[in-house]
Amino acid sequence: MDKKTETKKENKGLPTIAKFGIGCFILLALVGIGLAATGKFLFSRFGANMVKKGIEQKTGVSIDMEKGGEGFVYKDKKTGAEVSIGQGKVPADFPKDFPLYTNATLAGNASGTQEGKKGFWLIFTTKDSQDAVVAFYEEKLKSAGWSTDETMSFGALTTLKVAKSGLVGTVTITSDEEKKETSIMVTLAPEE
Fold first, then answer.
1. Largest CB tally within 10 Å, which of 2, 30, 85, 111?
2. In this structure, how many other beta carbons lie within 10 angstroms of the beta carbon of residue 160?
3. How many domains does the chain divide into?
4. CATH number of the domain residue 108 falls in
5. What residue numbers bound the domain in which 147 lies?
6. 137 and 112 in contact (C-beta within 8 Å)?
7. From first to last of its 192 residues, what are the pLDDT tens digits of the chain?
8. Could you tell me if residue 141 is inside a domain?
9. Looking at the domain assignment, is residue 88 inside a domain?
């Protein structure tokens, strides 16, 4: 081989355009991670406060978002009516003698006060069968002194009408075959 025709290959690394592209990608990834980390705090805190202030200014209803991180309290300053919406806990002033299904998870709750009278709405879910939940409530409500004058069943839906000590309401039990889950909704309100 002739020295003139022999070509020498040198390893110069990545071309400049590839280095530039990788650098841009890394920079964008770091910016994205930074925005994601701070954005969650900024948007949730500031966004919620903006909505809160807007509602309060337009309706005159005050909103307490500091309910232990588990919900909101809406209060009408004019009438004193109050609605509390939360998750995770049964309201502290829910009737202690009302039986709650033991193998269920609280999915949500709401309670409200108007003219000094308080009402409640709770929803639970369980993997237990609808029949097991209905049997529990039929037995436990009676033994706790709650009257169950009416019971209606329509396939995957059973509703028990309940009453005691000036409170009336329903226990509605539904099953979802697809999810293999039973929902329990308890509503109690002052008797009118």
1. 111
2. 21
3. 1
4. 3.30.310
5. 84-190
6. no
7. 555 555 555 555 556 665 566 666 666 666 666 555 544 444 455 555 555 555 555 556 555 555 455 566 666 777 666 666 665 688 888 999 999 999 999 888 878 777 778 888 888 999 999 999 999 999 999 999 999 989 998 888 999 999 999 999 999 999 988 889 999 999 999 887
8. yes
9. yes
